[in-house]
């Protein structure tokens, strides 16, 4: 049986879940009116909802578990350079891509999904681009959704000492139900609320943690006793056996000599920022804002939120290692450091709401992933190829059926409770970044990009992620860089070379490109 503290935590989380369900039910009627309302909210998002929704759905449980866990396990460098890359990528994506994509997607046959936009941008009759894009979305978002279900499983199994698999499946069912009824508007509205909860949770645990450790100077002095832990150009190396960090006779965790963190590794880690240009769940928020002129406010809100949240997440991992050095002795369990600090620092009812921050992050992301994956199939493959005369209601029904199928596959992937959230997310992030990032940039800013170049770029980028991760990176040395960087560059080269070798785009395509530069509708 649960003790009184756990009951209070559960009550707080139930209150939060009830609010989320209420949001879904509120928007259910509007979502069912049309596929455009269900998939993109009728392009009616305000600037704050756009900003918070994009960041909350993007960061997911990875921000509250994966990133702090990385800092707890091996120190500052890896987490710091990853965070810097993400912050730069966030700002540049809002600055250059958001407004152009909002206008261009409207001009290009009022596109409401990313595959639709690419297909309409190049005015293809045979939906090759949208089909390829939809397949990659299905693959990588299924992996992404699995990482969210892993987060839910770890959260509840850690809190209530219960079965990981049971908790993971129950959490997945809740997310599926919520996305199934509410669609994009419910997802975006709850993302706004969840972004606030995530932010407050991170900042609260950060400041209490600093107080508990005796201030910033005390935190730094204690962390420096671990070789390489606070180095920007080095990395701490836990001494492990069978994946478990070993303890000295005094009970203190053992570390080896600090490893090197060179320029190539830094560039590789910073390349996380390139992924933003290809993230469908972020790009879709750009397409859905009510007025392009409001994107400037959205950019400021999103960048500030991102900067503070990433800083807090990294610091929480370091605080956790200083205060509880022997509590989490595997890379997988280290991702529970935020849960550990929250339950130790806060009274149970407040801890419950902070735990809801993790649930918030997970729901924010998984509902986006499931919805975009389902819409990619229903709009681009089912409606675009399999049943071109399908009614809007049939497309909506197929979207929901596809959502259930993808969810079932994601649950199967998430059954392994030893999964490391950071590793799962990094692969899917690379997949989207390399498959869609270069093509999005060239589609928006290079008029000479051709349909053949677009196809070559998507295929080369997406396939190279698998090839580099599975065959080349294991060689080690300079080849052990993050697969996003080489795959992104190869995709860019493929787009340029193939576009220059093939016939120029038609006059209609060029005309729309020029119109998109100044379109404000």
Please indicate the count of domains: 1
The proportion of residues forming helix, as a percent range, comes to over 70%
N→C terminal distance: 58 Å
Total DSSP E strands: 4
Low-confidence stretches: none
CATH topology: Sodium/glucose cotransporter
Query: Order of strands across the biggest sheet?
Result: 1-4
* CATH C-level: Mainly Alpha
What attributes characterize this protein structure?
mainly alpha; 521 residues; Sodium/glucose cotransporter; two-stranded antiparallel ribbon; 4 strands
Question: What would you note in describing this structure?
Answer:
With 521 residues, the chain is mostly helical. It has a single domain (4-516), classed as Sodium/glucose cotransporter (Up-down Bundle), CATH 1.20.1730. 74% of the residues lie in helices and 2% in strands. It is built from 18 helices and four strands. The chain has helices at residues 4-31, 35-40, 47-74, 76-107, 114-121, 128-160, 164-213, 216-223, 263-270, 280-288, 295-323, 337-345, 348-386, 392-413, 421-445, 451-472, 484-501, 507-516; strands spanning 234-235, 240-241, 244-245, 259-260. The strands form two sheets. A two-stranded antiparallel ribbon has the order 1-4. It has a two-stranded antiparallel ribbon with strand order 2-3. The longest helix is centred in the middle third of the chain and has 50 residues, at 164-213. The mean pLDDT is 86.
């Amino acid at each position: 049986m649960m003790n009184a503290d756990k009951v209070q935590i559960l009550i707080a989380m139930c209150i939060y879940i009830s609010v989320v369900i209420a949001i879904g039910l509120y928007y259910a009627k509007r979502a069912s009116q049309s596929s455009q309302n269900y998939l993109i909210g009728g392009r009616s998002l305000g600037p704050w909802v756009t900003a918070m929704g994009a960041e909350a759905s993007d960061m997911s449980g990875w921000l509250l578990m994966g990133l702090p866990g990385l800092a707890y396990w091996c120190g500052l460098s890896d987490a710091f350079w990853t965070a810097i890359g993400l912050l730069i990528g966030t700002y540049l994506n809002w600055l250059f891509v958001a407004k152009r994509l909002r206008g261009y997607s409207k001009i290009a046959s009022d596109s409401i999904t990313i595959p639709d936009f690419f297909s309409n941008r190049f005015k293809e009759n045979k939906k090759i681009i949208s089909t390829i894009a939809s397949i990659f979305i299905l693959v990588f978002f299924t992996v992404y959704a699995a990482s969210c279900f892993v987060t839910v499983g770890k959260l509840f199994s850690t809190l209530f000492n219960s079965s990981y698999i049971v908790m993971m499946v129950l959490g997945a069912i809740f997310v599926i139900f919520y996305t199934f009824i509410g669609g994009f508007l419910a997802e975006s509205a709850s993302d706004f609320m969840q972004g606030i909860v995530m932010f407050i949770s991170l900042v609260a645990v950060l400041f209490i943690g600093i107080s508990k450790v005796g201030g910033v100077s005390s935190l730094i002095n204690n962390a420096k006793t671990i070789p390489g832990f606070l180095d920007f150009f080095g990395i701490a190396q836990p001494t492990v056996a069978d994946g478990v960090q070993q303890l000295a006779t005094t009970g203190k965790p053992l570390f080896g000599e600090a490893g090197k963190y060179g320029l190539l590794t830094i560039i590789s880690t910073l390349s996380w920022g390139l992924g933003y240009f290809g993230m469908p769940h972020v790009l879709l928020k750009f397409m859905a804002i009510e007025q392009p002129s409001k994107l400037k406010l959205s950019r400021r809100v999103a960048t500030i939120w991102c900067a503070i949240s990433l800083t807090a997440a990294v610091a929480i991992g370091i605080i956790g290692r200083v205060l509880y050095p022997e509590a989490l002795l595997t890379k997988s369990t280290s991702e529970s450091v935020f849960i550990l600090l929250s339950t130790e620092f806060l009274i149970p009812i407040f801890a419950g709401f902070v735990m809801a921050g993790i649930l918030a992050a997970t729901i924010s992301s998984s509902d986006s992933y499931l919805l975009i994956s389902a819409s990619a199939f229903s709009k681009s493959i089912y409606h675009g190829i399999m049943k071109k005369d399908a009614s809007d209601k049939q497309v909506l029904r197929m979207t929901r059926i596809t959502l259930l199928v993808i969810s079932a596959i994601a649950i199967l992937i998430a059954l392994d409770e030893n999964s490391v959230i950071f590793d799962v997310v990094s692969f899917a992030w690379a997949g989207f970044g390399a498959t869609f990032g270069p093509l999005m940039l060239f589609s928006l800013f290079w008029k000479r990009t051709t349909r053949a170049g677009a196809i070559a770029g998507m295929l080369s980028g997406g396939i190279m992620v698998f090839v580099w991760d599975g065959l080349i990176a294991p060689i080690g040395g300079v080849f052990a860089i993050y697969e996003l960087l080489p795959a992104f560059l190869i995709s860019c080269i493929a787009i340029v070379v193939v576009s220059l070798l093939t016939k120029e785009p038609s006059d209609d395509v060029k005309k729309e490109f020029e119109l998109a530069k100044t379109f404000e509708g």
